[in-house]
Write a structure and sequence with these properties.
mainly alpha, about 0% strand, transmembrane helix
Length: about 80
């Protein structure tokens, strides 16, 4: 029978797996929104992608704060019939 440390190791594994999947979901949502936005130039898109690659957490936070409302509007327009 396993010890309690094995159980806590499993709990931590599930927790970090959840965090990683949430992180990937946010990154792919931002990337999809970048290429869906017609108002951004190619250079601006390239800059956002480069920042997402090299400074992912800060860039995702800045993107969601600065462009989150327009991101929501584009998603609603895309899902409208």
């Amino acid at each position: 029978m396993g010890s309690t440390t094995d159980i806590w190791d499993d709990i931590w594994l599930f927790f970090w797996t959840y965090v990683f999947i949430a992180y990937l979901t946010v990154m792919f949502s931002i990337l999809a929104d970048l290429f869906r936005d017609d108002t951004l130039s190619g250079w601006a898109r390239a800059a956002w992608v480069l920042f997402l690659v090299f400074v992912p957490f800060v860039t995702a936070l800045v993107y969601l704060v600065s462009r989150g409302s327009s991101m929501r509007e584009r998603r609603v327009l895309r899902s409208a019939p």
